[in-house]
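Aim 2 progress update. The chain analyzed this quarter is reproduced below.
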Amino acid sequence: MQTPFKCIGLIGLPRKLEAIETHQVLYDWLVKLGIRVLVEHRLAEHIQFPVSHYASLETIGQQADLAIVVGGDGNMLRSARYLSPYKIKVIGVNRGNLGFLTDISHEQVIEQLSPVIAGEYDDDPRFLLEVSIYDKGNLINSSFAVNEIVVTPNTVAHMIDYDVYINERNAFSQRADGLIIATPTGSTAYSLSAGGPILAPHLDALIITPMFPHSLAVRPLVIKGDVPIHLKFPTTALDLNIACDSQIILPVKPTQDVIIRRSSYEFNLIHTKDYDYFNNLSTKLGWSQKMF
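Predicted structure tokens:
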């Protein structure tokens, strides 16, 4: 058993009003346990019950031992990017749709979280991607992603040409609607929809998944996780967009270079002791359902 948590952050912007009920249940329960609770300040406009301490995500990362994210994977991805520079643990309560990362049921939230609060949990650290944009060798923009980094033209239904360098060696050139670079965590997200493989979360690997390539021979590629991916667009005329987890959009000119690599940051995801990744995968993707 690990050390019980003494300061907990409560995070998660609601898409549904019902989600606020879970925030209140958790807040009241944690306060009764004598735990200091920091509520994300952006929740103030949604919450109708009294709260003692509001805080930014950065302050929660600095002061809290655990962050409980209420919502879907979108809330978890946003929180993970902010909290990854800190040592804080993160666990998710599902109030969204699939919820690959938010595996606590809101209907059993106190029952499932009680042993976690007491220090009974399993660590499941996940690495992030870092994308850097260079113009004539000068860094002009950068960001992070938990699931994937997606390169597309900024005009709908157009294709781009790109050259891919892996570990600074020219690997291949392709023409496609775009390109997805995904982590093992993101292998069940956008990359999967584009035909990419599912990777177990602890693999040290990245997925390069073309989006609607102009060739039947083009297939997704899995590479080692610690090698940089360098993208160039020598024959592309269109301006480009880079999307980080579909939440942060960076503009790119075709004359600029894009480098994607494994970040030094990890977010410290934790689970209940009875969590089973493959059972979760089977349940979320409907593999357990009989076809006939």
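The domain at 7-121+272-285 is CATH 3.40.50.10330 (Rossmann fold). The two ends are 44 Å apart (CA to CA). These observations will guide the mutagenesis experiments scheduled for the next reporting period.
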